[in-house]
Amino acid sequence: MTEHSTLITLLAARSAKRGQFTLASGKQSTFYIDARLTTMSPEGLSTIGPLALSVLEQMNWQVDAIGGLTLGADPIAYAISYASADTDHPLRAFTVRKEVKTHGTGKLLEGPFSRGDRVAVIEDVITTGGSAIRAIDAVRAAGGVVAGVLALVDREEGGRQTIEKAGVPVVALATATQIISALQG
Prior knowledge:
Blueprint: H1 3-15, E1 16-22, E2 28-33, H2 36-39, H3 42-59, E3 65-69, H4 74-83, E4 92-96, E5 109-110, E6 118-126, H5 130-141, E7 145-154, H6 159-165, E8 170-175, H7 176-184
Parallel strand pairs: 3-4, 3-6, 6-7, 7-8
Antiparallel strand pairs: 1-2, 4-5
Helix pairs in contact: 1-3, 1-7, 3-4
């Protein structure tokens, strides 16, 4: 099995659920993907890190750091950073807080992010694109350059197009269609 097919199998078996759900976007859906059930597991981390690193290399975005809105992006960014440790260009992982910290340094971005970094924004599941846009805005406000968005899953509900209309390319490791097919197979 390839890393991609392993990822689809893991997402279908662990993260995909059918029923009635309200998504973070407020939309109603009969299909839910709790990506954390995959991204926070040993098998998920060891599959996602190398696969996502390979996709970033294929995209040729030449990034210095990776990160996105906490909590969904965190394990994905950390897995990619870890997978890059022994490469010629290790990637630093950072977290974008949902609210500015009111104590200490008062940062919105945490971790080894530096002004001027070329960044891939990480997203667990794209539905409307709102979380990725929030992370893009935070990175830009902190002086970073956003090369693109790497998503674990694209729900194929217009979020990708919203991000691309904002001038940021998007690549997804999996789509809802692929996961639903694996559920049925």
